[in-house]
Amino acid sequence: MIHLDNVTKRFPGGQEAISGLTISVERGEMVFVTGHSGAGKSTLLRLIALIDRPTSGQVIVDNQNTRRVKRRKIPAYRRQIGMVFQDHKLLYDRPVFDNVALPLIIAGVSHRDAGRRVRAALDQVGLLHKEKQSPQTLSAGEQQRVGIARAIVTRPKLLIADEPTGNLDPDLSLEVMRIFRRFNEVGVTLLIASHDIALIDRLGCRRIELEDGRLQAPQEEADLWQ
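and the corresponding structure tokens:
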């Protein structure tokens, strides 16, 4: 599903956020990317989402070489990817329903079909009863679940998440990860950047560890999911 071949990302000034990185994530896997702040986790996700392009090397996502995706084709490319952010990036002047519907509106989905899909996504994250509320009235965990509903409403093959539990307490963090696990069980590939090693170990998924933009030794897998 995802393959990076000797990828380097160098920013103006010469700083290398990713250095010679080669990794693969198979279709249907749920994989975590770990590492200290500045290790390259967010840059990796941005390369996959085509927010940034590599300085060298190849990024292959669902058999597409991102180097060959022209600028005008980027919106279509991103429709296959759901993206979840730590700070939610919700629109506070619109209700929950409209926030989740936004990707469908951009994609030109009909009003009737969009309504059905938005309510299905909200139901999956347990927020169907709050579709008319403003995001500002929701708890941090609920706002994050709205962000997840928005990410899955397009039925993506791949879901990437950048520190999705960074602002949540341990119980809410586990709740969010259980939602991700349910998506994974129906075939969605997940790549999640997180610094919460204790939570990751509890889930028993494969871990990719970065340090200064480079791949570290693989971690042992353990089936500790409860």
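(Above: one complete record from the training split.) The helical segments are 41-48, 74-78, 96-107, 111-124, 140-152, 170-185, 197-203.
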